[in-house]
């Protein structure tokens, strides 16, 4: 590499110093020129302290804004939106009684006896059951609804069916559960008559239930275009309380209540009526005023909602209910090798014996004790229905005789078994509740830019000025280094040529002199 003297380097340092002074003289950084340009020493020190203080305040405030951004703050926005039409929700109803004793045959009693608490471990009728059944025998020819249970009092000569031919719980509940054709006395939707054909059968932990406006089997969803009573669903139901299972002890299947369980939900969400439903009692007309609420949550790190599609073989749309049923189904199939009647999939349904020995205890443990299992995230988009309930007593004294005559029942039966359920939208609107980001990158840049202008009088263009100056310095240094190298090499070559010519001249004339 060619070597040269230090003169070009001194010229470069001088030119850089001049360029630096020129930059400091014209820069838009407030206060910088007073620190580095000419002036009294105390004045320059004072400006330096002021500039450093402003710079420290800028960094302190900026770091605070960065930490605030990293904390992922959110706020909630609520808004009422008026609509011309709304999809009427799905309405699932279940009788509190799981099955009808009068439909049971002796093989059914044998199959479901231990599940219902009729038998002990040795297939003997428990003393409490025997006492309860005998106490209900009134000595008349009127056969009570639970008369089939009397047959178990003489169960000694009964030949049980083979174990492999015993019915599953699905078959039992489908045949022995309350039938909608018997319960539904009156149905009207938006002034139009409806009936059992407008309901879909679905199984829950309450057994055989029915859903209105489920949207299944290609049925179109019902639309409501008005709010208020008379523009929704009105049902009159007979709960058939006289046919409830007799209570002879505390079991999971014995109901201490009389009435129906109701859940109002979207068509995409399976019912979870045993935990999310509300009760409706006989002897009352229950008014349920609904308002649709559409909730939007944020995914991590701003929130905790689940934004990814549901990884399930049973459900296509994610919801908390679907997630829990999916998880409980997998848990039961893994531990009991069967599934309950409300669970999806292709695993075999549990028999009454499996219900008693495995399924019921396992699911009760999962729901009531193991709070860390089957915990599901909230979906990012959720539709729910807010409800306000009110009641009036039925029948009135004026209508009791008429209803008894109309349905061929006694007045006491009407008072103890008939209920009316009226579900409607309060108004034709819905409420949106959105979780929104309270602070984003644009807000951070705006805050930092404002503080830069406040503390040091800088902006994005000022930063560009600094980068432009540094770029020019780098280019200037590189250009001068190349020029210096070229000049040095050229000077060395000229010197070498002069020396060569001098030597050649001396050699030529020294020979001639000799």
Characterization of the model:
- The protein has 514 residues and is of the alpha+beta class.
- The chain folds into three domains: 7-71 and 442-496, YojJ-like (Helix Hairpins, Orthogonal Bundle), CATH 1.10.287; 80-96 and 178-239 and 259-437, Sandwich (Acid-sensing ion channels like fold), CATH 2.60.470.10; 99-176, no CATH class.
- Helix content is 40%, strand content 19%.
- It is built from 14 helices and 14 strands.
- The protein has helices at 7-26, 32-36, 41-70, 106-112, 127-135, 169-176, 180-183, 273-276, 320-336, 352-368, 397-406, 411-417, 441-455, 460-513; strands spanning 74-82, 86-87, 90-95, 184-189, 192-193, 199-204, 207-212, 223-224, 233-238, 260-265, 278-280, 284-296, 381-393, 418-437.
- Strands 1, 4, 5, 9, 12, 13 and 14 form a seven-stranded mixed beta sheet that branches.
- A hairpin with a 2-residue loop joins β4 and β5 (192-193).
- α11 (397-406) packs across α12.
- The longest helix is centred in the last third of the chain and has 54 residues, at 460-513.
């Amino acid at each position: 590499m060619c070597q040269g003297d230090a003169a070009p380097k001194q010229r470069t340092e001088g030119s850089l110093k001049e360029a630096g002074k020129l930059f400091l003289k014209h820069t838009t950084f407030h206060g910088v020129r007073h620190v580095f340009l000419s002036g009294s020493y105390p004045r320059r020190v004072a400006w330096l302290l002021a500039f450093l203080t402003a710079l420290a305040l800028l960094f302190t405030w900026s770091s605070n804004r960065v930490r605030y951004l990293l904390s992922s703050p959110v706020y909630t926005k609520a808004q009422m939106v008026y609509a011309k039409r709304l999809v009427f929700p799905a309405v699932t109803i279940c009788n509190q009684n799981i099955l009808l004793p009068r439909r049971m045959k002796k093989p059914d009693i044998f199959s479901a006896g231990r599940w219902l608490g009729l038998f002990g471990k040795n297939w003997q009728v428990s003393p409490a059951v025997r006492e309860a059944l005998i106490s209900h025998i009134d000595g008349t020819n009127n056969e009570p609804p639970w008369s089939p249970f009397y047959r178990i009092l003489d169960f000694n000569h009964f030949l049980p069916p083979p174990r492999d031919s015993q019915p599953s719980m699905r078959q039992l509940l489908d045949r022995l559960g309350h039938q909608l054709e018997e319960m539904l006395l009156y149905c009207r939707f938006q002034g139009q008559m409806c009936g059992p054909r407008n309901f879909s059968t679905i199984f829950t932990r309450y057994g055989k239930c029915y859903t209105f406006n489920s949207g299944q089997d290609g049925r179109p969803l019902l639309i409501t275009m008005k709010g208020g009573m008379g523009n929704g669903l009105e049902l009159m139901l007979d709960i058939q309380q006289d046919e409830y299972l007799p209570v002879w002890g505390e079991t999971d299947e014995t109901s201490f209540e009389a009435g129906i369980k109701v859940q109002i939900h979207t068509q995409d969400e399976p019912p979870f009526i045993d935990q999310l439903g509300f009760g409706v009692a006989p002897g009352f007309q229950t008014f349920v005023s609904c308002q649709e609420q559409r909730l939007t949550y944020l995914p991590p790190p701003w929130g905790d909602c689940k934004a990814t599609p549901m990884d399930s073989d049973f459900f296509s749309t994610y919801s908390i209910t679907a997630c829990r049923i999916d998880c409980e189904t997998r848990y039961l199939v893994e531990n009991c090798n069967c599934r309950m009647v409300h669970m999806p999939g292709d695993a075999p349904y549990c028999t009454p014996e499996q219900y008693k020995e495995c399924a019921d205890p396992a699911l009760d443990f999962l729901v009531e004790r193991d709070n860390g299992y089957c915990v599901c995230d909230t979906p990012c988009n959720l539709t729910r229905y807010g409800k306000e309930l009110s009641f009036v007593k039925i029948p009135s004294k004026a209508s009791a005789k008429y209803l008894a005559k109309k349905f061929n029942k006694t007045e006491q039966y009407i008072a103890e078994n008939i209920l009316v359920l009226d579900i409607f939208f309060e108004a034709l609107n819905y409420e949106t509740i959105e979780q929104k980001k309270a602070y984003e990158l644009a807000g951070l840049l705006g805050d930092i830019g404002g503080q830069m202008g406040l503390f040091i009088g800088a902006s994005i263009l000022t930063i560009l000025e600094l980068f432009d100056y540094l770029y020019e310095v780098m280019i200037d240094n590189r250009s001068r280094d190349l020029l210096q190298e070229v000049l040095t090499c050229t000077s060395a070559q000229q010197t070498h040529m002069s020396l060569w010519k001098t030597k050649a001249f001396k050699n030529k004339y020294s020979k001639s002199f000799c």
